[in-house]
Amino acid sequence: TGTLTIQNGGKVSNVTGILGLNAGSTGTATVDGAGSTWTNSGNLAVGYGGTGTLTIQNGGKVSTTNGYLGLNAGSTGTATVDGAGSTWTNSGNLVVGYGGTGTLTIQNGGKASNSGLGFLGYNSGSTGTVAVDGAGSSWTSSNTLHVGYNGTGTLTIQNGGKVSTTTSHLGVNAGSTGTLTIQSGGNMSTTGGFLGYNSGSTGTATVDGAGSSWTNSGNLYVGNGGTGTLTIQN
Length: 234
Description:
This protein is mainly β. It has no helices and 28 strands. It has strands at about 1-5, 10-15, 15-20, 25-30, 35-40, 45, 50-55, 60-65, 65-70, 75-80, 85-90, 95, 100-105, 110-115, 120, 125-135, 140, 145, 150-160, 160-165, 165-170, 175-185, 185-190, 190-195, 200-210, 215, 220, 225-234. The strands form three sheets. It has a ten-stranded parallel beta sheet, with no helix packed on it. It has a nine-stranded parallel beta sheet with strand order 2-5-8-11-14-17-20-23-26, with no helix packed on it. It has a nine-stranded parallel beta sheet with strand order 3-6-9-12-15-18-21-24-27, with no helix packed on it. It is globular and about 45 Å long.
C-alpha cells in the first residue's frame, strides 16, 4: 500500500507514474490546492495491475503524456477531478479501462483534456466509465473519442457538464458496447458521430431533458455497421 499527497503548492515530477503496480497492491495519490502539481513527462497508470486512486482537487493540477485508468486485466483505476481550477492534462491519449476497470469523474468545475485519442473500454473485457457533472466541468478530447472500443464504455454528461471532441464512436468493434447519456442540461459537441460503428458493435445514446444537447457539426450515423439507437426525450 502506497500513498502520495501533494498539497500547499508542493510539486512532484517524474517520468512514469504508477499507482497500484502489482496485483493486490493499492496506490493512492491526492493533488490538493492551487499551485500543487504532479508532472509525469511519460505515462501515468492509475491501477497498473492492482488498484489505483487519483484525486485532483481544489485547484491541483496533474499532467501526463498518456493517462491510463485500469491498465491490465484485473486492475482497477479511479480518478476524480474536482473543483474549479483542478485539471488533468494529457498531451497524448486518455484511456479509461484499457484492460481492466477504469472510472473517471469530473465534477464541480474540474477539467480533463487529451490531445490524442480518448478510449472508454479499450480491450475486450475492459470497462470504462466517465461522468462529467456540473456547470464548468468539462472533458476536451482533441481527437476521436471511442466509447466502447473493444470493451464496454459508458459516458454520462449532466447538470451543465460539457464534452467536446472530434468524431465520437459509440461501440466500435465486434463485441463492444458504447453508451452515452446526456441529461439535466448536459452538452456534447462533436464533428461527427457513429452509433454501432463496425459489425457486431452496439451504440446507444440518450439525450434527456430541457437544455440537454448533442451537437454534431458533421454527419451522425445511427447504425453504421453495427446496431445504433438514439433517443431524444423530455
